[in-house]
Design a protein that fits this description.
The protein is mainly beta. 51% of the residues are buried. The chain is built from one helix and 35 strands.
Length: 429
């Protein structure tokens, strides 16, 4: 499972529980890798149904048009693959769920746009529209007879027949949601738009507040993540946590609970200087401007390895960093030193407009999918070696052929051969 979705505009990612080398990632399309991220192919919409890529504006905003009748358009926000289902001939799980959110209308806030859920019962060969929910879906959790979707302020039970039933809800919209298994139930950790932290121990039916008491007089909580196989462990990001007078006591950072939210402790915090337990890069050395800094941001996303709750990755506006010891120490992984200089690992702070969304998969693999999965998100073929840049006229379109569309992905700093970065890049011509 191990999905981590925030309310920021980030693509969905899911990993096949039947075959851990199979990964799904989404932007305007659903992509699949069958070789642990080395190559990617478009699964949905059907690339042979007059599917055309559109890139518009100086940010090269990415969208698709397609004659695939099941394709709703918009952006993928969540993906789920059902464990325990029979395999396809290619060795992947049969049933896959995807949630799309419509593109912005000029007068509509993104959170008010409806979500369209589609499903495939044959490993992505064919698709059907399943249900419509009133707002963006942050997380899909597979169940025995369907799935749970978290949309707006509410948890919904979605049946395979398209039936929709409201479960429980918060008094505010969800900001971030993460799930873990505990016996026969699903525990849901969430943060709300009110800046508080919540927990459901019955798949979203009932909720209680577990907001950390860190002796703060102000602040809010945003990104959150738990470990799939250890529901008692959770990490939550905080922003503007006031722990005393003066700007040196106004912190962004991460807190951790090992007892299902009954108690919390800070494991990472930064004010006008970087965290004392962070081994940084060139970013921190160049960030300080007098006694202030524009770099030390709160985490946008967090991910905990499903089989080892000591392994956590975090990303903010400019950095990706990780801990292997439960938060005692952290290492920034977007750059690496070469002598007295620095070089890229492919996860560049200037390679895409926005943050990264981080997701964990079995065997402690950690994957990063850039917010904009397009030509701007240029992942190096080898660490430290940047690929050639493409030139694309704003507003250009590209037709997608019948053949499989693949791109190499890059690895970035890892604690072992099992920690990699992959990106389903822009479609090949």
């Amino acid at each position: 499972m191990a999905h981590v979705q925030s309310a920021r505009r980030q693509p969905g990612v899911a990993f096949d529980p039947v075959n851990p080398r199979v990964i799904y990632a989404g932007n305007a399309a659903l992509w699949r890798s069958s070789d642990a991220g080395l190559t990617w192919a478009m699964v949905f919409p059907n690339p042979g149904r007059n599917t055309i890529e559109n890139q518009i504006g100086d940010h090269s905003d990415y969208s698709l048009t397609s004659d695939d009748p099941a394709y709703p358009g918009g952006d993928i926000t969540a993906i789920a693959v059902v464990p325990g289902e029979a395999r396809t001939p290619k060795g992947t799980s049969q049933r896959v769920y995807v949630s799309f959110q419509a593109r912005n209308r000029p007068s509509a806030a993104p959170s008010s746009l409806p979500a369209i859920l589609v499903s495939s019962a044959d490993g992505g060969a064919t698709w059907n529209r399943l249900a419509v929910l009133p707002q963006r879906v942050l997380l899909l959790v597979p169940q025995k007879s369907g799935l749970i979707a978290f949309s707006g302020s509410t948890a919904y039970a979605i049946g395979n027949d398209g039936s929709v039933k409201e479960l429980g809800s918060l008094a505010t919209n969800f900001k971030a949601v993460s799930a873990a298994r505990s016996s026969d139930s699903v525990w849901i950790y969430a943060t709300g738009r009110d800046g508080l932290v919540y927990l459901s121990e019955d798949s979203g039916l009932h909720w209680r507040s577990i907001t950390p008491d860190l002796h703060q007089c102000s602040g809010k909580f945003e990104a959150i993540a738990t470990s799939d196989l250890n529901s008692n462990i959770a990490y939550v990001g905080f922003r503007g946590l006031r722990l005393g007078d003066g700007k040196e006591n106004l912190f962004n950072g991460i807190a951790k609970s090992t007892d299902a939210g009954r108690s919390w402790k800070i494991v990472f915090k930064e004010s006008i200087r970087r965290a004392v337990n962070l081994t940084g890069t060139w970013i921190e050395s160049r960030a300080a401007e007098g006694d202030s800094s524009i770099w030390f941001d709160a985490p946008y996303s967090l991910s905990v390895a499903p089989t080892d709750s000591n392994i956590v990755y975090a990303s903010d506006l400019f950095r990706t960093y990780r801990t292997l010891d439960g938060g005692a120490t952290w290492l920034e992984v977007n750059s690496k030193s070469v002598g007295e200089a620095w070089t890229s690992r492919g996860l560049d702070v200037t390679s895409s407009y926005g943050s990264s969304s981080i997701h964990s998969i079995p065997a402690t693999f950690i994957w990063t999918i850039p917010t904009s999965v397009s030509s701007r998100a240029r992942m190096a073929a080898d660490p430290g070696k940047a690929p050639p840049r493409e030139s694309r006229t704003p507003g250009a379109t590209r037709r997608i052929g019948l053949r499989s569309i693949r791109r190499n992905a890059a690895s970035f700093g890892e604690h072992s051969a099992d920690a990699r970065s992959a990106s389903p890049q822009n479609m090949a011509s």
